[in-house]
Structures are given as structure tokens and as C-alpha cells.
Write a structure and sequence with these properties.
The chain is an all-alpha fold and 127 residues long. The protein is 74% helix and 0% strand. It is built from 6 helices and no strands. Helix 1 packs antiparallel against helix 5, helix 2 packs antiparallel against helix 3 and helix 4 packs antiparallel against helix 5. The radius of gyration is 19 Å and the shape is elongated.
Length: 127
């Protein structure tokens, strides 16, 4: 495989992973908005359900930011942007702990970005 093929493969994998990772935040947001006692409107009552709704909504928003950044990295790989190297390597660290898929993705990303072809393809352009 050429470095361009590896970049395309990583882009598709990151987009698929980002799409898959978007399911839990959407479910959390749907629960927080549709649950009768967990919405923001009742959060001033300070009941256990309103705090749970706030916690779930905050978690969903944070997971959504993470998911969006994974999708952005996938797009960066597909468009071969030089800035994708650093965020992709940063995603390798937590991904290692999500065995087996995350570990495989982290190893493949780390290997490709440290290979000669990956360095050449994703190095910063000369000024």
C-alpha cells in the first residue's frame, strides 16, 4: 500500500469510529430532553433526577466534542492535511485502552505516522 492508501484507510476508519461514537451522546441528549424529571426546566428543584439530567447532558456534550474532533481528524486524513498528525497521535493515547478496536487503530495510526511515507505525506509544508 502507498502512503496515500494508508491515509485514505485511516480517514475512513476515523470517520467510521466517529460515527459510531456519536450514538451514545445522541442517546444521552435524547434521554435528558425527553425524560420527564431530568430536564433543565426542573433543574432548579434540586431533585436527584434534575442533577442526573444535568450530569448526563454535560457528559453528552463533552462526548459530542470528542466525537466531533475524531470526525475532523478523519476528514484531515482524507484531505491529507499536515495538521492532522498531532491530533491523530494525541488520540492514540486514550485509544490504546479500548481493546481491541482502539488498540488496533492506535497502533496502526502510530505506525503509519512514524513511517517514512507518513512523515513525508504529513510533514509541514516548507515556507
Amino acid at each position: 500500500m502507498t502512503p496515500q492508501d494508508h491515509a485514505k484507510t485511516l480517514g475512513v476508519i476515523y470517520l467510521a469510529a466517529g460515527t459510531f461514537l456519536s450514538i451514545p451522546p445522541l442517546g444521552f441528549l435524547a434521554w435528558a430532553l425527553l425524560a420527564p424529571d431530568a430536564s433543565f426546566e426542573r433543574s432548579l428543584n434540586f431533585s436527584k433526577w434534575s442533577w442526573l439530567g444535568l450530569l448526563v447532558t454535560t457528559s453528552a456534550l463533552l462526548l459530542s466534542l470528542f466525537t466531533l474532533s475524531v470526525l475532523v481528524v478523519g476528514g484531515g486524513f482524507l484531505k491529507r492535511k499536515h495538521w492532522v498528525r498531532l491530533p491523530a497521535l494525541a488520540f492514540c493515547v486514550p485509544a490504546v485502552f479500548f481493546f481491541p478496536f482502539g488498540t488496533g487503530l492506535a497502533v496502526y495510526t502510530w505506525w503509519f505516522l512514524h513511517s517514512e511515507g507518513g512523515r513525508r505525506l504529513f510533514s509541514k509544508p516548507a515556507r
